[in-house]
Amino acid sequence: MNRRQLLIGGSAAAVAVGGATWAGVDRLGSMTRYDAAVAESRAALSANPGFAELVRFATLAPNGHNTQPWRFRITPGGIGILPDFTRRTPVVDPDDHHLWVSLGCAAENLALAAAATGHVGEPRYAVAETGAIELALRPGRAVDSALFAAIPQRQSTRGDYDGSPLETADLHRLAAAAEVPGVETVLITDRAAITRVRDLVIVGNSAQMGDAAFVRELKLWLRFNPHDALRARDGLFSVASGSPAVPSFAGPWLFDRMMTATSEHARYARQLDTSSGVAVFVGAAATPDHWVAVGRACQRFALQATVLGLKCAFVNQPVEVAGLRPELAALVGMAGQRPDLVLRFGRGAALPYSARRPVAAVLA
Known about the structure:
- The structure is a single chain.
- The chain is of the alpha+beta class.
- It is built from 15 helices and 13 strands.
- The strands form 4 sheets. It has a 5-stranded mixed β-sheet with strand order 1-8-11-13-12, with helices on both faces.
- It is globular and about 55 Å long.
């Protein structure tokens, strides 16, 4: 094995707005139209897809605040993934850690889609040379996989799960899928340890919600109704977190009044308490190339979870609030290292999918 697996045991905010009715509710847009547009972006690849279709599958990767901080450069010999620093989130992600992780998730999707459609190539982090992750491709034998098939179905499901335990065999499948050089994945299934993670999440959430700059940045990426979500095709759609749609003018006002630390604490506590486990991903170093590798490992884990009928959602407060990282690292037996991602997983109901920008909008 190229990394250690440790089995312990056997951010985005939803907007609670109540059931009020609103004048001008017709301006909210249609969930039917929204769902149709999202389904189109997640449609199966054609029989002989071009590189642009592979890019479409790459954009289905998870990414911080659904900012989609990437650009893709298509050449006759392959595809490059470039960071789009105009979509940074400098408050929650001051060193662009999440940005590079997001690019790693996209690179894994791209590699799986390329292999499944008869292309041979391995993503290469080449930022020092070109500022991109390069995937040189040549014709080869198509290598289909369950992870590739799961790409359109994977989602970050920010709801409650059913709390049921996973079989040991499934935990090993999840760990094996995440095997990427330079990345260690720790699976936590012991309830007491999950509770410790929950407490760190709550402490981190308190720090973030008490930071006016964090809240301002978060609100920039919130989409409060299908109309706004479909127009932007990015950001955090409140309905995708289980909240009702509200008019655009009312969303920020309601956020300020209804999104309290107390309500968020209860929500995160419930979500962690109903999760089957928590995965913590740790790169070998705090550098962009290792963050890309963490993204690839995390995406492989999430795709394998999707294959197994599981849901996942990020609870990254303990890695986003720097002062909490040492305690999380100690909890997973990796004192002195920087944890990169925290992902809860379990069985739960699907929620509406997040939108993605069209391929034409992300080509360099």
